[in-house]
Structures
1.
Amino acid sequence: MTDAVLVETRTDDAAAWWRQAAVYQIYPRSFADANGDGIGDIPGILSRVDYLADLGIDAVWLSPFYPSALADGGYDVADYRDVDPRLGTLADFDAMVAALHERGIRVVVDIVPNHTSDLHAWFQEALAAGRGSAARDRYIFREGTGPDGSEPPTDWVSVFGGSAWDRVEDGQWYFHNFATEQPDLNWAHPEVREDFLTTLRFWSDRGVDGFRIDVAHMLTKDLTEPLPSRAELDALPQDGNHPLIDRDDVHEVYAEWRRVFDSYDPPRTAVAEAWVSTPERRAKYASAEGLGQAFNFDLLVADFDAPQFRTIITDNLAQAEATGSSTTWVLSNHDVTRHATRYGLPPLDGRAVKQGTEWVAAGGPAEGIDVAQGLRRARAATLLLLGLPGSTYLYQGEELGLQEVAEITPEQRQDPAFFRGGEFDGLGRDGCRVPLPWTSSGPSFGFGANGAHLPQPSWFAEFAADAEAADPSSTLSLYREALRLRRELQAEERLDWIETGRADVLRFSRPNGWQVVTNFGAEPFELGADADRVVLGAAVDSAVPGESTVWIAPTA
Ligand code: GLC
Ligand code: CA
């Protein structure tokens, strides 16, 4: 086991490490490629642990690295308790965990319980065993409709577009919320439940500190016949009794998981990816009897706009207080357009990104994007976030100020959502998954010794980590400084708004006296004597320039 170092240095409240952690999301196949096959791998991550330590994050979250046909970037898992041979071995994984723990960085892994890969042993067994078999009962198989059963059981549509049903050789149909290669599991099946407990113990025993739960709100289903039509399904409220989404009975699953998490010292943590209809519904996932924390994606669907930010911040802090959890700030992840690009686009109008609780569609730079403004606003928004109570999830490459990559031809694209034309309309999600530029020259900008599995545009040179590390005004330098100062700023999980007299300027203080001021507008915001205590971001003529954030240290 690899967690010896960390366990010894933990204090009593080490169990609460996640509450205000800065968690850096690694998308393994696009992070660093150690063996030059074009796909990022675990030894690649190991080779960059010093970079992660210098960045100053508290934890990494690894998107799936399990054996997979990569039909959905690894979210199609063929074996939950192994490492994809292209990405390394379990021994490599252990070495990576040990190296991260030595630097005080915790490790969170992704659990994908809603569906397996169609290559998973269970699904292969279900195919071979035939209709009516016990093996098929681990998934959702149904007879088709129409005279010869050649029509799907219902007209339901998958999240990625196209029918949510596919037909197997003997004529039965199986249900998949996502791609064809991602059959949904039957969570009413005791073996399915038991097996995930085994998986949680497997990684916990290897020293993993926490889990990110993929589409946590979709596992349980009520598929009592007759099944509703798509229109009927869409009209049903998502109040805990919807047949497919955010059912109350899913929390029975997480109560069992919680018992596993709490059997470890310190308890393993979990964060739910739950796109649900209201903050109250989200709170159930964040409860201490359940997963403990849930992603708040509100800022993914907000404009760069002071009143929107203020409402979202206030609401989420109130909600965290009510549940006893801490909130989670997110501006970018592997499913959405990078925020440096979003903020350079016209305000969200449903064209580039979907609104509400819908998935946010990744688009890539559209015509009319203002790259400089996007980056300016991204830096301002990130500094605001890092000053807030709660934990912040950062997505690899955002610390370089990376833009979404649009220059990917249809032939080069990999995202099943692009090919199925579903809710991630437009270009799909490949544009935020392009392998990172580590060096401003050389093969695949230092990602690996050869090429990269998605094409890197020439402008990646400007954003390379080596160039930015040497430049004190770079986005990387800003992130490093912010993450360093954040350790001083973090205090009691509270903030107090300070009225600014301007609708486009937000200002708050933390209980220990640190202040954060974000100017969302164009006109400079005057700070007066407080300008002398600006330690992050820059005051110009004692004012906060437009579209920027400053941190003000407490008075001595
Ligand atoms: C989650 C993941 C996304 C994946 C989907 C299906 O939303 O973040 O990348 O495609 O689940 O597993
Ligand atoms: Ca590789």
2.
Amino acid sequence: MGLKKKSVPMREQPPEVRKHNFLEVPLGYNKEEAILEAQRCLQCPTHPCIDGCPVHINIPRFIKAIKEDDLQKAIDIIHESNLLPAITGRVCPQEDQCQAVCVMGNVGDPVSIGRLERYVADWELEKRKKGEVSLPPKMPPKNKKVAIIGSGPAGLSCAADLAKMGYDVTIFEGFHKTGGVLTYGIPEFRLPKWIVEEEKKFFEQLGVKFQTDVLIGRTLTIKDLFNEKFEAVFIGVGAGLPRFMHIPGENLDNIYSANEFLTRVNLMKAYKFPEYDTPIKVGKRVAVIGGGNVAMDAARTALRLGAEHVYLIYRRSRKEMPAREEEIEHAEQEGIEFMLLTNPIRYIGDENGFVKQAECIKMKLGEEDASGRRRPIPIEGSEFKLDIDQVIVAIGTTPNPIVPKTTEGLKTGRHGTIWVDENLQTSVKGVFAGGDIVTGAATVITAMGAGRKAAASIDKYLKGEL
Ligand code: FAD
Ligand code: SF4
Ligand code: SF4
């Protein structure tokens, strides 16, 4: 059999259909497609793909099991390193991680590792729906309590590993729902929420306890947790505080942060208003500012809510957009109007204080900046006005200071991130941290990797080895 250079494509909802619904866009591989794609893997002895994955899944072994149609074996291999494969298989930036170093990439398309991971995970989710749950092995109880703050991917991964080691783990979550950005940020059409709910049940079956509506720093402090006989604490509170550009007019009505906009839609199900309580303003001409995954998600969500024009305004070129290529392509196919090398400089309101125009300026690219990308420079005299009735600002987030501010001795670093040593231990004894709160906004899989690393450190700490 000759080497197949092209990967097996994944079926998708057509753009004209999907832009009117919140259903998932890619439809997943069927058995035949998955086996064909698995056959493209060369089972390289050096397997660079494993090092490309931040949680080091044994990729060739699980792909071999797919080829042999032994999906139980495939999921067991994945679960050794990753308990959220239905999520990572969908949202990991695979093209920059495991697939970026896949040897097949030298001769054609890299093996579609993420899609194969999703295929196996979806098979397992279907089994779970029928009540067939195969839990990973667990050690006997250690009778030691560990508190996890935040139920995003960092907190969940840390909790799962500690529960498997026999610790008594409780996750404290400020919102009424668990999952962090997986629940309130990434939209339904990229990550269906029933999957995040299913994963929560799986974690509960592993023994992890959840306490929602508990905001650490308000309802309880870290000191209170130690007083309640928790012997170690992991902080995985993410970096959810929106950033704004601080330009004139930014406080006009109908200017949202992407965080608020997406939280209203995803967490409060505003797209189902009035069936659900939370309304959302639906603009007809929406400007989304930014070029990352968050901007793509906000733009595509606005389109699905009924916007007639969604302008994605980004100050650099397409090549420099930080969003995943797949998301950029999906946005283009759906009709998002990209205004590249453009930046808003002020917003103009109507007599009632609602935004009605964005004044923008054209940009050109200059020398490389500290990020290795060419610096955008405004072109004098190129200002123009764009009629809009809603703005969604998606230019990044920073950590919320509530935990550092209420925890004596907790050292912070750049932009309010929490300082940790190489073991993810903070400056406070028994307190560890990981995920976006340490790195600043990053990815699901890096947060999961940090959660797992912290779990190993907490285990050592509680055994007196750290
Ligand atoms: P979070 O997921 O932010 O979870 C933190 C949790 O802590 C939240 O539930 C929060 O409510 C809770 N919390 C905060 N403060 C407190 C407190 N004081 N007490 C109790 N609980 C608290 N990454 C990808 O890899 N691929 C993508 O496609 C992708 N798309 C994204 C799209 C959007 C819209 C956004 C916003 C992010 C996206 N990311 C993506 C980034 C990724 O989701 C994050 O890097 C990741 O979720 C970080 O995980 P975390 O566990 O550190 O934090
Ligand atoms: Fe690749 Fe992400 Fe899966 Fe790791 S978790 S193998 S990086 S898709
Ligand atoms: Fe297979 Fe690619 Fe990994 Fe080689 S590098 S083992 S081809 S997935």
3.
Amino acid sequence: MLKPQATATRDLVNLDGTWRFALVQSDIEKEAPWSKPLPGTLDAPVPASYNDIFVDPAIHNHVGWVSYQRTVTVPRGWSQDRYFVRVSAATHRGRVYINDKLVAEHIGGYTPFDAEVTELVKPGESFRLTITVNNELTNVTIPPGIIEVKQNGQKSQRYFHDFYNYAGLARSVWLYSVPKAEYVQDVTVVTDVEGSTGVINYDIKTATPEASNSNSSSVHVVVVDEADKVVAEASGAKGSVKIPNATLWQPGAAYLYQFRAEIRQGGKVVDSYSVATGIRTIEVRDYEFLINGKPFYFTGFGRHEDTAIRGKGHDSAYMVHDFQLMHWIGANSFRTSHYPYAEEVMDFADRHGIVVIDETPAVGLNLAIDSGLFGKKLKHTWGPEYINDQTREAHADSIRELIARDKNHACVVLWSISNEPSSSEEGAREYFEPLVKLTRELDPSRPVCFVNVMFATYDKCLISDLFDVLCLNRYYGWYMHTGDLPTAEAAFEDELKGWVAKYKKPIVMTEYGADTMSGFRSYYNAPWSEDFQVAYYNMCHAVHDRFPEVVGEQVWNFADFQTAATHIFRVDGNKKGIFTRDRKPKAIAGVLRERWNAKLKELNEL
Ligand code: BDP
């Protein structure tokens, strides 16, 4: 799915700003918030999660629908165009109404969708745009959750993932146009390298597919380098172009060609769309992870889209600052834990040579963690009552939408289809096999992983053989052997030996960390102190360095982040950040900086 773009043949109008806002208090069909101006006096910023904007527990804790509304005018010059409202994310379910008419509905809180306006409003006219957004998580949504009705009749939301269920319109909303007659609907690029020649294999879909074969119009591609020089051209909707002496996209040294897909009619360009394309290869060979044929070592973070007040609202200042901090500390990669991030973030990673493990929102498919941590009776994750066939369909959709959105990003080197599912519980294999197959069919060019939870050790995990890379989240010294680093070290080393003996696959440590109160110091390395966090990471790194099979380390987490208030072991959120929520470094930051910059020097990325 292409991100809207302004070109010579397309326009783009940004609809961000403050929108009218209201909770839906009763039955949404009866209330019909789209049918009239919203009641009340609230305005909400877009993009932002709404939860922390207002000083009102009823809004903060609301479970159900909310409405956003504003007036939009279709530009008067759009008579030869088709036009759409693009919602970059409505978390977790969104409906778009043009005046009184429902024109689109979408489930899945972190991927975009379009609503066509063309036939409903003429150029130059205005319309009432209402977007209703629902934040409910059930056993058939991704991520899943459980809705309970309290004694007072109010709904409450439970979920089994460790980040706050921020909701609303956290990413931009757009109005955009494409040419009415024919337009470029989708572009897929897959790159390769032959000696010093870069190869871009491409597949272009037009809105009228026969167009590419018709006499009157044809599809062309033009590849332009960073100096704006045309370096390759070709005709046809499907094929490949070669770029002699190509500059490759490398971790830490990005280079992007503009791959321009054009529809031409009688020598005239009637539509064009450009994809920023980094030429690079990815390969998993034995236990190595190769980018452009060179062994790669992931340094960096599991992150969250999370800041004060905005919640998951995309913010360019935070984005640029966070990338600056990643550069400063020597991070060459991150994982989009635990959902697809804003498209702007992916573009930025492409431009700055940061490697991304791209994850679906399939997190919390695990009732064993909840039972294990709180000593409750073990409940079964996989089966008709919780994660069932319908959930798997939603999960498949989340994979389809992630790949459709992010397939052209050079930065994406690995798909992660789930975080910490209950992979040692019977039923896991039956659940995951078709999803892995689907992912490989949709994108045969990238390796696939899932992220393994600490209970599902090498002798218990039922699905690791289905994947290309072993991604492990381990908390030896924190959740296990808390504070006892020598015992933790031995246990961690033992477990890694088990994985290495059983599988010949690269291992990336995708999470390890310790909650740390910024400013709490201890002579005795007490857990929660900055000193303990340093000692903990030094222990983990000593173990990583004993295994050539470990090809990466992404610490948990980049910054402190908000979690559900029902997690009584969290005080105002998860504190495993290397930086505080407002991006101040803890003592560990300097230690990581030294280690990772030395690694990057070894890899020639500095
Ligand atoms: C892991 C989860 C992550 C949590 C982390 C933690 O993948 O989302 O935040 O543990 O407990 O289980 O800090």
4.
Amino acid sequence: MTVVLMGFMGAGKSTVGYMLAEKLGLPFVDIDILIEHRTRRRVRDIFSEDGEAEFRRLEHEAIVEVLSGTDAVVALGGGAVEHPGTREALRNVIAVHLEVSYEEALLRIGNDDLRPMMARPDIRDVYDRRLGVYSEAADFSVKTDLRRPEEVVEELAGNLSLGKPSG
Ligand code: S3P
């Protein structure tokens, strides 16, 4: 079983993903970290030097490769689902939307300069647009506002044990 965590920046994908992987006895892959290791560059620098489109290409490539490998818990970057090919690749795994409100995301990450997307003046529109994309791609969602990662992991693991919902 491969479980993929999607959601906006600050949803807790990396924290929850790591904990869920421990619980399930599966490896954990954080796509942003994988890209940084491979390119030996920070995500922020890829954005500023080569542009967002190049980052999305590297991101898609890494995701397709990871999803075709052994079972794992995989945390995607917040914008990964904007790539149609990535959405297609998610059909074969259990895709979970970790939901965070815009206000809580801002509280959690503030103006983190490691996250170039947060500097966009239209970031609120990006948030609104992505909400629909996440829920469309997700097998189920788990709310994270005002909840500790342990609670989120518990609900998520409970849903997984019920099996992948059809449809
Ligand atoms: C991005 C989210 C980041 C990272 C990159 C772009 C986005 O990941 O992939 O900065 O477009 O929302 P996190 O969601 O883990 O912060």
